[in-house]
Design goal:
2 copies of one chain form a homodimer. Chain A has a 7-stranded mixed β-sheet, with helices on both faces. In chain A, strands 15, 16, 17, 18, 19 and 20 form a 6-stranded parallel β-sheet that branches. In chain A, strands 25, 26, 27, 28, 29 and 30 form a 6-stranded antiparallel β-sheet that branches. Chain A starts with 13 loop residues before the first helix and ends in a 9-residue tail after the last strand. In chain A, helix 6 (204-213) packs parallel to helix 7 (230-241) and helix 13 (372-381) runs parallel beside helix 15 (407-423). Chain A has 26 helices and 30 strands.
Chain lengths: 730, 730
């Protein structure tokens, strides 16, 4: 059973609100500096075909439309009302709207929860009215909405083109920036925009669900500063990414940025890397830079997904072929190794000085015959070793640069590329240095739905997103045993009792209890014995024999065992054990005279290997999250760790191990043998299932686990108990 | 004495060649598809005012200009000839040109060294003629040149605007791309472009020197795939960066890219990171992405350098303030901490909901008064804690977005920003989401020489480049003892003898000899003793006393001592020493029965500390280079190392230590004390001076050096001797 269940049950109520048959503009105005004027202009100029009800007690007509003195006075029942009036008027207006049959209101005013206790009280009053009258709220403190396929443009933004990119943005400036970029690009259009504002009622998760359902939206694009219910967001994202691409830009990637963000919205921004890992786990395309948002959304919307990461590059200049190769490698993509057949076919049509090894550099072959580039693209697209094709160079500009007489050939090349894009299931990504000029051949490609990029960097980001999406969807579509969650575990009564006892005693699990929990669920733990008295050591020594042993104090009161002198290592023989026992008792007593000491844990010294760490937290935003990383400085200094939402699939666990920058260490660096990755993957999956089975478990820390070429050793284990969580719950 | 000496001695001969009074176009043509036509059009349409001599035996007139049957037939003495004819004609034409007084030729033809042995022979023949006749060569295999301030445009590129950015690019497509980008930007113009081609005669270093001297060039911009004489390039770069900014984009940043590059030009691309470190050492502004070249060159050309890395951000939207903060942190810049006075002054003019903590978010305060942003910029520019100012948001678009009536106020704001930029010595970097639209206020800023960026990412790259350049120049301008090279060292006769002996014996220095070399020049090395016989150990044991000792074999034939069983650790007492001696002798004999074994080296075990590595190579491209990094996985897996050209200044050594990603480890991670950075800096400087003093030293490896809170221990030292290098040379 999978706790992230949330299928799209009912159709989102936002469809009615965002495609209303009538709109009331409360605070409509004839003063061009007012939002109540702008909104009216947006609706009228935008050609909104429903009823417009300007509400303004002081006007008869606004921009030629009959005005009404109040919402109550409106004759019809507009589904949507835009409130342009001050915060204090909002609760009363919502009640009035509700009585008039308004289903949703967009509230522009600020002055609510974001300003302090007084505003928060007003926000509560607003919400109470909304609930009482069945009115849904977008905002308050929102920049507004548009829905271009219904000619609704409450922001009155000029030059917006209807299209298939839906946007939710916590920053109004970001929306403006995307709109201007799209205008400039000339190709990209938008479906719906929503500024979520304070999200008092409707939040990110609902908006994403709406964009998922909206048939005019092909790509959902989100600018996010922080999530509230991150786990729910992941649920919705999983459903939506199965249907269409979801592009997220998350700000606050650095500590400095996080501080700036929290002073802005007060949102709990959380750890950037964790957020990104979890979003990607559920198929979201995360972009790193704000200027990548639109190029990536455009590419994901227009192009086929790639089956993998092997890219063939066709270039008409060696320099840009090199640059493309650099960027591909940085983005985690590979240069496809072309088959001998492909190279032969290329050689047959290219000049001798051309390089037919990927990146293919035609080296002048296309100077008087630009359509040759389309032939090259076809050859590599037909190669089974290739997942996607990148064209790099001056295509579209041959007739400008060399001779006008080339225009015909260049247009035939464009036509051939269009044909190829229809014939192949591999994406064709085109970078042209003539993109800003938009010559005829590029316009033709544009018209046929092939995006043209003006930056190699952006073209490569698109290829990476297409490859990641392809691999993600391929996993999702695999049969259950591979792609889906692992089978769940049932909690064991004896272990529930251990949790219950710990909870009653107000403590966490003792180390041996934690290890018993692991062992109970099939995780290999080192043999170990608890000695309560010094005299127990004789039998223990006999059992282990003459091998080096470690001894650790067992005490609910001593968290940092080493600091208390509670750990002795490399003990061989009975005498050494006895002496260590005495020393541990003495120094732990010195450390904390009141500590209750249960005894000591004796275990064989772990062999040398690669230190890894597995941690689990129940994140307030995202719920249970598993972290995996290499030990020591890798975690603490380099922050080279991977996060996944629990439960993990096998694919997730595989990816966690592969994702680490230092994975070369796992694979056997410096002449050492590599570790048993399969055993680690298995361990991660079992930990994930234990966390699911025991809601009493609040945090878990296996640190270190020593990984070997043949398995692993869990050297230390800590389990923190959820306070007050009863074990009798299922 | 500083081996990087190369001051600009004489004026570059390129000035005459690139600003000629007459130009011969050999292979001039009336066929629009030929380069010989394009070049004629470029000269005529470009308004070249000198004499044009088309050379074509079959034409009387070309494009209305009298043609000549051969170079010899030309009546005047053009300084420059463009050869558009095939490779085979080139040597003969050069001789003819030389006789006619031509100083330089631009050779477009390919088919020389880049194609194989036959072409290489032709290239040699060409060079012989050039030397015999005193003709300098640009190319062959070049895309051409332009010099817009002299109306010379041999590429016949349209829409080029004269300006102050000079370009040398190994990729013709890159030049085209920059030209189209500049055309689109509308503000940026170029001085000279040179395609270096095969660099058979004139190379990168000469072109950079020329751009440094050229008074029409304010910024030298280079696209480089690989260097030939990298050390000479660094010399020239040091001279040029003292006068004007030098921007370099180096391709081949990844292994994949390097492979692509070498199949393209056959240039030795070297390690990307080393190249970048060395370029930065000499003040070059290295950009990481090709689409940053023009924005950074524009910013460095127009704006003042920044005194440091503390940036004040003024934003009219919280989202973009956060994005800017993220990017600043990633670029190694800091958010300046504004003084209380500044924050008070800001509070006085902003709405209560504004954030006056950097990033300053005016939060609506400028909605009806955009000129307020200029006031905010002035306040933070006057703050001593601030080195540069970044404006982020929609300035320029207020009158478009809110109300036309704001245009006057917005223009006053632009005027105030222009005044501020003239009054302050701090750079003002402006990002506007309206940059692509170029509204009047932004056009005004543009006219006044303030660049406007359409991407936050690019704006931040410019700030980083301005800060780096400012810090670099400040160091250069410091008095000798701080900024300049450290005093040099003289070689010691006894050490020269050690090198000479090793050279004669065809071996490298033995470990104790290497350590003696270090000790001789003031580097602290652990006390150590060589035992030739087992009996020597008694006295050694007495001298060291009862502390743990390490023993290592001394043999010219055993490079990997551990592999040979030639290292024993943690030896305490005479018996242990004796036993270790026997074991080492036995296993080294087993390992290599023919190895000559000098004895063993006995030294105290090093205390635990932080492992670092210091290495020196004499790079074939860049000459002697010092590498510094943390030991073990940091070097081997993470490649977290810093490089500097020898000799190092103290500033260089400081920067090496600060530059490491893992420098937190040096500063005391995981509760450990930090190490003595000053001692490490001193060690780096001494190593640099030793390398200068001994040309016999080919490579050096101190691995590991253990760094402590109080000094360091050089645990192992290797010195490779330059074969055949006589010690009698100075």
């Amino acid at each position: 059973m999978n706790p992230i269940e949330g299928h799209l049950q009912t159709r989102s109520p936002l469809h009615d609100i965002l495609a209303p048959k009538g709109i009331a503009v409360v605070g409509a105005s004839a003063d061009p500096t007012k939002r109540g004027y702008k909104a009216m202009v947006g609706l009228i100029k935008g050609g909104y075909r429903g009823d417009i009800y300007p509400v303004n007690p002081k006007a008869e007509l606004i921009l030629g439309v009959k005005a009404w003195p109040s919402v109550s006075a409106i004759p019809g029942s507009p589904e949507l009302a835009l409130l342009c009036t001050p915060a204090a008027t909002v609760p009363g207006l919502i009640a009035e709207c509700g009585r008039r049959g308004v289903k949703g209101v967009v509230i522009l005013a600020s002055g609510f929860g974001e300003t302090g206790p007084e505003g928060a009280a007003l926000e509560r009053e607003m919400m109470a009215k909304a609930e009482a009258h069945g009115v849904r709220i977008i905002g308050p403190n929102t920049s507004g909405i548009f829905n271009l396929h219904h000619n609704i443009n409450l922001l009155a933004l000029d030059n917006l083109k209807p299209g298939d990119i839906g946007i939710v943005s916590q920053s109004g400036n970001m929306l403006l920036s995307l709109a201007l970029e799209a205008q400039h690009n000339g190709q990209v259009g938008f479906s719906t925009y929503i500024g979520p504002g304070n999200q008092s009622d409707i939040g990110f998760n609902d908006y994403l669900r709406y964009l998922g359902e909206d048939e005019n939206t092909r790509v959902a694009t989100l600018y996010v500063e922080g999530f509230r219910d991150g786990r729910k967001f992941l649920e919705v994202a999983r459903d939506v990414t199965a249907m269409k691409p979801v592009v997220v830009y998350k700000s606050g990637s650095t500590e400095q940025g996080r501080q700036a963000a929290s002073s802005h919205t007060g949102a709990l921004a959380g750890s950037y890397q964790m957020t990104v890992d979890l979003l990607r786990q559920f198929g979201v395309s995360v972009v790193q830079y704000s200027d990548e948002i639109l190029p990536v959304a455009e590419g994901l919307g227009l192009l086929q997904r790639a089956a993998g990461k092997r890219v063939a590059v066709i270039a008409d200049g060696g320099g840009q072929a090199t640059i493309a190769s650099d960027r591909l490698a940085e983005a985690g993509l590979e240069l496809a190794e072309l088959s001998d057949t492909s190279r032969e076919r290329l050689r047959a049509i290219l000049l001798p000085q051309a390089s037919t090894r990927n990146p293919v550099d035609v080296a002048g072959s296309s100077d008087s015959h630009p359509a040759l580039l389309a032939e090259c693209m076809r050859i590599v697209a037909e190669d089974d070793n290739v997942d996607s094709v990148l064209l790099v160079g001056m295509f579209g500009g041959y007739s400008l640069r060399f001779a006008e007489s080339l225009l015909g050939d260049e247009m035939r090349g464009a036509e051939a590329m269009v044909d190829l894009s229809n014939a192949t299931d591999k994406p064709l990504v085109i970078y042209s240095l003539y993109a800003p000029i938009k010559p005829p051949a590029l316009r033709r490609l544009h018209e046929a739905g092939l995006p043209i990029y003006a930056s190699i960097e952006h073209a490569v980001r698109v290829l990476a997103a297409l490859g990641e999406r392809g691999l993600y969807l391929a996993q999702q579509e695999k049969p259950l045993e591979q792609g889906a969650s692992e089978p769940s575990m049932l909690p064991v009564p004896s272990m529930r009792a251990v949790f219950e006892r710990a909870r009653q005693e107000g403590r966490d699990l003792l180390e041996y209890e934690a290890k018993a929990l692991l062992a109970e669920h099939g995780i290999e733990v080192p043999k170990e014995q608890v000695a309560i008295n010094r005299s127990d050591l004789v039998a223990i020594a006999d059992e282990f024999g003459e091998i080096p042993l470690a001894m650790k104090v067992v005490s609910r009161d001593i968290l940092h065992k080493s600091d208390a002198g509670g750990v002795k290592l490399n003990l061989v023989g009975k005498a050494a054990l006895a002496e260590a026992f005495d020393r541990i008792m003495a120094s732990c007593h010195d450390y904390d005279p009141n500590a209750a000491i249960e005894g000591v844990l004796v275990t064989p010294m772990a062999r040398k290997g690669v230190e890894v760490i597995i941690g689990v937290i129940r994140d307030p935003i995202f719920g249970p999250v598993l972290m995996f990383g290499l030990g020591g400085i890798f975690v603490e200094i380099l922050e080279d760790v991977a996060f996944r939402s629990i439960p993990l699939t096998r694919y997730d666990a595989d990816c966690m191990v592969e994702q680490l920058k230092a994975k070369k260490v796992l694979e056997g660096a410096r002449g050492e043998a590599g570790v048993d990755k399969a055993a680690l993957v298995d361990l991660l999956l079992k930990v994930s299932r234990i966390v699911q089975a025991y809601p009493q478990l609040s945090e878990l820390d296996l640190n270190p686990v020593i990984a070997y070429p043949d398995g692993y050793a869990v050297v230390d284990a800590r389990v923190i108990v959820e306070p007050g969580q009863s074990t009798t719950s299922p």
